[in-house]
Amino acid sequence: MLETTLDIPTRDGAMETFLVRPERNGPHPAVLMLMDAPGIREELHDMARRLASVGYYVVLPNLYYRAGRGAKFGPGVLVKDDPERDRMRAIRTKMTIPPVMRDVANMLAFLDTQAEVEPGPVGVHGYCMSGPYALAAAARYPGRIAAAASFYGTWLVSDAEESPHLTLGKGRAELYISCAEHDELAPLPMVAELQKLLDASDVDGELEISPGVHHGFAFPQRWCYDKPAAERHWERLIALYRRRLG
Q1: Residue 22 in contact with residue 117, Cβ under 8 Å?
Q2: Segment 67-103, tens digit of pLDDT
Q3: 36: exposed, middle or buried (C-beta count within 10 Å: 0-12, 13-18, 19+)?
Q4: Over the stretch 197-229, which tens digit does the pLDDT of each residue have?
Q5: Structural domains in the chain (count)
Q6: Strand, helix or coil for residue 148
């Protein structure tokens, strides 16, 4: 595979972005992989590489770029009261959906300039804090994003004006929403409410709860990593992209 890191220009600065694609048989369909709250790290690079290995041009941006190139964190980011976690949360809590949607627009514009990218529909998936961003992007760019997935996305139903549940049915993308049975950031009553809204809409999509697992189950280096659930996550994601992107 071929990989590089470059800056995608935005009105708010240079968005450092990891790109990886197959070496042969291009051009390839593009997918946007949106990070979880702990931010860009080699674990996510490896996950992007796995997706590229089955035929996709994967774009993994550092969504914390507005805070500068130092917005990457050590292992303490997952430890309560650790300075690294506090530093991350100071950035994370300022993020909202509208600026990330501008970032998505910049990424789509960038893809249009790349000869290695197959013209046509794009996929997007997000983990944790970016689950809502993936669903919002599907609604915001219905003519371009054909598939969107959220993996243990946080607070998909809330009182916020930008709550992702308000956008259901506004796009044409096929949606896949994966939740963990044990997740204080997406408790089961909220998931049940989202399921009712999904059932009542005309959305082409599915919500699935992985039993017995915790928030973060797909990350190989996380304490809660669950191999069967993680492999199911890959199977569902790749099948979604095969159906809608090729």
Answers
A1: no
A2: 998 899 998 988 988 999 999 999 999 999 999 999 9
A3: buried
A4: 999 888 899 999 999 999 999 999 999 999 999
A5: 1
A6: strand
Q: Which domain holds residue 55?
A: 2-244
From 199, 202, 132, 142, select the one nearest 165 (Cα to Cα): 132
Residue 216 to residues 100, 183, 226, Cα–Cα distance (Å): 22, 9, 9
Q: In CATH, what number is assigned to the domain containing residue 164?
A: 3.40.50.1820
Residues 6 or more apart in contact with residue 100 via CB below 8 angstroms: 34, 63, 130, 133, 136, 137
**What sign results for the dihedral spanned by CA atoms 127, 208, 105, 146?**
positive
Burial class from Cβ neighbours inside 10 Å (0-12, 13-18, 19+) for residue 205 reads: buried
Residues belonging to the chain: 246
State yes or no: pLDDT of 160 exceeds 80: no
The residues that bridge with 17 in the sheet, in sequence order, are 6, 61
What are the tokens at 50? 């796995």
Pairwise CA distance, residues 49 & 45, whole Å:
6
| 29 pLDDT above the threshold of 90 | yes
- Tokens representing 60 are 């993994």
